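Deliverable D4.2, example record:
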Amino acid sequence: MSRKGENIYKRKDNRWEARYIKGYTAEGIIRYGYCYAATYREVKEKVTAAKAALMNNLTPEPVSIRRRFGLYCDEWLRLNRSRVKESTYVKYITNIENHIKPKLGGCFVQGLSSLIVEEFSHDLLYEKELSPKTVRDILMLLHAILKYTQKQVPNMPLVEVVYPKDIKKEMRVLSRDEQTRLVQYLLLDMDECKFGVLLALLTGLRIGEVCALRWRDVSLTDKLMCVSSTMQRLKNLDENAQQKTKIIISNPKSNTSARQIPLTDYTVKLCKVWEVRDPSAFVLTGETDRYIEPRTLQYRLERYTKDCDLSGVHFHVMRHTFATRCVEVGFEIKSLSEILGHTSPKFTLERYVHSSLELKRDNMSKLGAIGY
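Output generated by the structure prediction step:
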C-alpha cells in the first residue's frame, strides 16, 4: 500500500520503498532514486535526507534548461510568423511537426548534441528516404531554431549541424524531337490546360505563375507579359475550416521573380486565340471566378506526356527546356536569367543551362577551323 502523493510503498517482502527524482537523461527521461527500510518512518527519513542532499550538493538547474526543445520550436515559429510569406510559414510548420519535433522535441536543450543531430539527419536520409535537398532544408530550419535556443540558454552546449552532400542530378530536358512531338499534341484540339502547358514551354513560366496569370498582365500590343503573382495550394492552418488545404494567390517566389517577359510573334498569335476583354480574367480560363490550380495542370501534363510516349516529364521540365532552347540559339545569359526570374546569371548557368548533344557537336565542329 502506498502513501498518497509521497511515492512511498510497502513491498511484497514487507520492506518499505521510497522513490524520488534524481535528474533527467539527455533525452528528457526522468532518472529516479530509491530508498529502502523496514518501517515507513525509517524510509521517510531516508528519502527526505536524500532529497536534502541532492538540493545541497547540486546547483538547481535554470528553468530554461529543464524545458524541452519542442517548446523552443513553437516559440521560434510564433516569432517568425509575420516575417515570412504564408507559404514559407506553412513549410516551416510542416517540417517542424512532421520531422523535427517527433525526433528532437522531447529532448532537454542541455541534452542536445552534434551526434544526436547527425543521427537525426541520417534517419531522414536513410530511414525516411528523403532527398538530400529536402534534408538540407530541414537541417537549415533546425539550425535557425538552435541559434534562437542558444540565445535563450547561454550555457547550452554548442551543436554543430552537418549538411548532407547535395548530389546534383541532371535535369530532364526535352530534346528537339520530343518538344516537336509534344507541341503538335498540344495544338491538336487545344483546351485551356494544353494552352497552359504550351505557354510555359514558350515563356519559361513556373506552374504557379501560369495558373495565376490574368489578362491584365499581358499586353499583346506591346508583346509583353508581366509576372506579378503565383498560385499555390497550402495547408489550411484554420482548425475550424472544413477544407484541410486552400488556394493562395500571392507575390512571386522572390523579388526577381516579379519580371517582364517579351513575347515572340508565335506566342502573341497563340494568346490572341484565347484573349478575352476582361483584364481581371484568368488567362487560362477567361473567367474571373474560375481558375486552374497547379496540381490540376500537373495531372493533365502527366496524361499528355503519356500519350506522347514521353517519360520522366513533370511541369518544371517545361521551364528547363525553354532555358536550354534559349542557350542553343545564343541567348545572352544575363537576359535569360532575368526572363527566368533568377537572382543571378550564375544560378541560371549552374541549374538551368543544359547543353544538348547537338549543341556539343556544333561547338566541337568549330575546332576544325584550327586543325583539330
